[in-house]
Structures are given as C-alpha cells and as structure tokens.
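Quick one - first record:
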Amino acid sequence: MKKLLFFTLLLFFVSGQINAQISQMKQYVFGHSLIVHTPPLYPTPSDETTVPHWMALLATEASKTYACSGQYGFLPQHRQLPPFAQWGFDTVTPAWDDNQYDFDSANFNNVLITAANFAQWQGPAVNYYNDTVSPVSCTREINDWVKSQQPDCRIYIYENWPDMAGYLSSGFPPNQTEWNNYNNYIDGAFHDWWIEYHDSLLLQRPNDSIRMIPVGPIIANLLRLSPYDQIPITTLYEDDAPHGRPTIYFLAGLITYMATYQEMAPATYQVPTTVDSIVRVNYNSIVNFIWNELVAFNIAGTNNSRVFFGNPPTTSIQHNVSQDVVNIFPNPSNGFFYLNNNQYTIQKGYNTLGELIIESQDNFIDLSEQKPGIYLVEIEHKVTGEKIIKRVIKN
C-alpha cells in the first residue's frame, strides 16, 4: 500500500507541472468562519477578520488582481451543488454573481476547500457520525464537480486551526500550559490528520493536483518564537472556537497569499494598525519565516511540494536588504553553524516544537549534541535589533 501511495503521489507531481505563478486570481471558497468570520465580537473598520480581505490588499500592493466569492458550511453541506455565492466584502471584488451566471462561466482559477476544525477525533476517511459520507468522500465529490465545471482550476486544501475548548479547564483565555498544549496539538496529531486527508485525496485523484496550505501549523510555529510569543492571546483570538481577531486572519491571509500566488508577499506592504504591533514591526521577518515553512512542506521522503504547482522553489528567498546579506553556513552541517555577517549575532535556537534548546550571543551556534533534524535559529542585528528566523538542518 505504501509503495502504491508513493508512485501515485509521484504521478500527481509529474502531472501537475503547469505554469506556476499567476497574476489574476478568481477564487471560490467552500469555507467556514476560520476563513471568513463576520461579524466579529470586537467590531473592526472593515473585513479584517476574513482571509479574502487581506488577500485583496496584498494583491493590490503587488500589482495583481484578486476576486473572491464563497459560502459557509461544513463539507457535507458543501456537497449541495451547484454552490451559491453568499459572501460579500468591503474591499474584495466579487468573483461570481450566481443569480446571473452559471459556475462554469465564472472562470475560476482557484478553489479553496476546508474541513471542520472538530472532525479530527477520527480518521478523515471514516464517515461522520450517523452519516454515510466522510471528509475524504465529501471533498472528492466537491473536487470532481469543480473539475467538471472548471477543468484547469487549482484546488487547495486550507488547513485551519483546531477547536480550543477541549484544552481549557476554566474557559477562555487559556493559561500558558493550556496554550502550549494547544499549539503542540496543532503541529502534532491535528496536522497528522490533515496529512492523511491530503494523501487520501492524492491517492484517489492523482491527476487533479490538489495542493494543501498548512495555515494552522505555520501560525502555531510562529507564535512559539520570540518576540511573537509575547503577543497576548486575547489579541489573537476572541473565543475558544477559536475565532481569530484581525492579527490571526492577517497571518492566515499572508500564508494563503504566498501559497496561491506562489511568491513572497510584497515587501512594501504597510501593515495597518488593526494588526498587533509586534507583527507590524517584524513583517518582513514573518514573510521570510512563512516562505521557508511553505518551501519545506513536501511529501515525506521527497522534494515534491505539497503547496506549489509547477517547479517550486527549493531554497529560501530572502526578502529585504539585511536578509540578503546575512546567512548561516554550512547548512546542512554536523551541528556547527556560523554567520557570514558580523553585524548580527545568533541569539537562540529552537526545535520544531518551538522549545528553546540553546541561547547564544555569538556569531555561531553549536547544535552538535542535538538529534539530526530541522531547527530554527533566531538572529538579531546588533544596532537595529531586527530579528530574523533561519531554518537549519543538522545532519
């Protein structure tokens, strides 16, 4: 079975070699409130608690176009096809008027599908309780219908974040231990469920080139690192569902933008004050971190991207001038890593769970006693205090 899966996934990537980047996106979303949350508990100036809002702003800054329509529901409800466009936004051009045009005439080139965030207690191919369909079978049905209408449309699985209530003993917000356990689950068993879900879809529909965007795990990994671990939880989320506040949806939009446009978000974008100040100040470093995470998200044991179409990048593309001239070498190495720029020092090293494993204030870091694997290294400019996160591999 494993051999069959490997060769099926190989076929998936061979068949998926199409033109990678796009400049004009028309997107339809089979989603729920972890993509579009309106109205939020705490009012915002516009649609800051929606992913399409941030997608549109980033696209405009990058001189690209973005239009979006979509609907609420969970996967069993999304099977009621054709869909109907029930979303509207202040800042986003609608992609489809379902009262005037059929879906097949809308020229969608991007479709986003997501599962509920509380379905992960059993396998993705197991039927929902008291039902005859599963997350996999529902998604396959939606995929097949979309492909019959828009054969060249790119389909993405949006991996959101899980329900938080089960981790709370005294209600929202969580204490530090509960918060740590929650984020470990996002990048652990919860993420494993989405991997199995994606692999099942690839096995059954290898020619349809379904990709996956690991939004929840990337956000969780970022929030484990300094200085983002200092952002108050109540600035990120408003309840235990957990519905996000603008900062969370901004990060989700940033990840989704880079995954679907297949390029780094524009360095010139000015993050508005509705987003937490730590995120605003470190925008370029966050973009670099997200890009590294997306580039590294491959089918296990291969260099085949789960995210990108065409020929995906294989190395990090640094984003601003300072990052262009600072790097760590050799990488990979047997544990000793050095900086190539004496204007910076290495401050901290983390494992992929976000646990601090070593501190330093030098131009090198010694990970020789750590197990082989991927580690995150925090670098700081001696004068400006700018922080950069680098990914290193210990052989």
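second record:
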Amino acid sequence: MFTLAELAALVQGEVVGNGELPIHGVSEIQHGTAGTITFLANPKYRRFLAQTKASAVIVNRRELLQDRPGIVVENPQLAIAKVLGALQPPRRRPRGIHPTAIVHDEAVLGQDVAVGPYVTIGPGSEIEDGCTLLDHVTIAENCRVGSGSWLHPFVTLYPQTTLGHHCIIHAGTVIGSDGFGYVTDREVHHKIPQNGGVRLGDRVEVGANCTIDRGTIGDTVIGADTKLDNLVHVAHNVTLGRGCLVTAQVAFAGSVRVGDFCIFAGQSGVAPHLKIGERAVIAAKSGVTKSLEGGKTYAGMPAREIREQNRRDALPTQMELFRKRLEAVEAKLSKE
C-alpha cells in the first residue's frame, strides 16, 4: 500500500488533495472502487470522471480534478504504468534447479538462475545471472540467455539463439525454427538448409505463440527494446530495428529490413526482401508490397500513404452518390 504522496513522488507529479490518502490498488475509471487510483488519458473517457468511485485520479491538467484528490503529470498513461509496477504483486519464481530439469554437463548457469520443472538445457548453452526459466522451457545447444531474462512455460529456443539482457518471452513461443526455404526442381521441393541463428537485443519482449525463424545464412535479428505482441511471425533473415512495436498477427516474410521505431498494426504483412524506413507506421490489415520510406503512415492493400488510401477508399461512396444523382436527373428528364 502507498500514500497518494508516495505515488506522486514515484511518477514525479503534483499532489492534489490529501497526500496521506492510502492507495492499495488501481482500477479502471469507469469501474473505479474506493481505495484505488485511476487515470484519464483518453478524452473519450472523460465522461466517467465525475462518477468514478476511485479515491484518486491521475490527470494532465489540475482543473480536471475539480474537488477530487489526484496527481497531475504530463503523461498520465506513463504514470499509471509506473504505479501498476509499484503495486504489482511479486512474481513467483522457482528456487534453484527443479529435480525434474535436465541440464547438460556442458551448459553454464550463472548466479541466481531459477529453473522450473521439466526444463531442458542443452550443451554449450549459457544462462546468465538472474534468469528465470519456467516449466517445460526447452533450450537447445549453443544458446545464450542474457541476464535477468524471463522465459514463460513451453518456450523453445532452437540452437544458436541468443537473447539479450532482460528479455521476456511469453508462453508457447518458438525462436530459431527453420525458415521456410525451398528450391523447386522438376516439381520436387528441395529443402534449403537453415544454418543461421537468431539474435534478440536487450529488453526485447515477445508475446505468446510467436515464431521467429533462424537465418538461412547469417542471423535473424530483432533490435533492442522492440516489443512483439502475440501470434507474430518473423521469417528467416529478417532484421527489425530497435524500439519497434508489432501488434498481433503481423507477419514479416524473409529478408525484410525494418528501421528503428516502426509500428505495425494488427494483421499487417510485409512481402520478402523489402525495406521499411525508420518511424514508419503500417495500419491494420495493410499489405506492404514494395519498399517504403520512413516517417510516414501507410494503409491498404497494397499499402500506400494513408491520405492516398483514404481517397481511394472514399471513391465507392462517391460513385454511389453520383449514381443516385444521375438516376434522379434521368427520372426528372423522363417526366418532361
């Protein structure tokens, strides 16, 4: 439990009202409960501000609080993230190495490594200090897991996979599986050996049930601080820059190059061997079929700059209006 003043100090905000007000949790503004703190970041939720039962509210302007206790900060969403972290129950981690785990004699484990039930660690793999491997994690040979990383149940790392420091890999994700590479000769598909690896930078987070393929020659690379949602597919030899945000069901075909701080909305996809400049934004369900400049927002299939795509999307509606107007004119002329 924290006081309102303690939370204000945590988020570097201004206290409004009773700084000794006890706060034991966080609630949604529309479902606020006594003893909790909530926040207002999206203007469409402002209508709940007057009626919320939360004891305090984080806002970006003092006048929004009226007579209610709260905290004023520049970025309420960032502030609530810090508060959630402070109030989050501690995560349970295994102690030491579970007796059912299989750790190869040639594997190297650092200090304070937690290994859960039925974990397998192969020869030549290194698990650095403070890592947590929950139940049924499989780490093949010659992998490295950077310090402080957390692997959830049933994560699988194929050989030659490297994770940076403080990575989070959620349940069911497979990193380092073979890329989809075949050469067809006389109606026979011959498999191309996939001899590369995968490298994740520091603080990368990968959602549940993602697949990141190993490189054919060279590595598949995901830059530091990039975050992948659930059900994302990254094909062989893809390079994602640092700080990218990739939401659910996005797919990158082989050898795509993505710059830093790009955003990919749900169910978008990128064709092989393309380059996307840094800070590009790809809207939901968009299909990227050619290389794109950075610093712009794209939408549609094929993906175009969003203003151009919006104009194209408006054409059917405009044509329907023209049709109705033409029918009205024809009807008028037929009566004359």
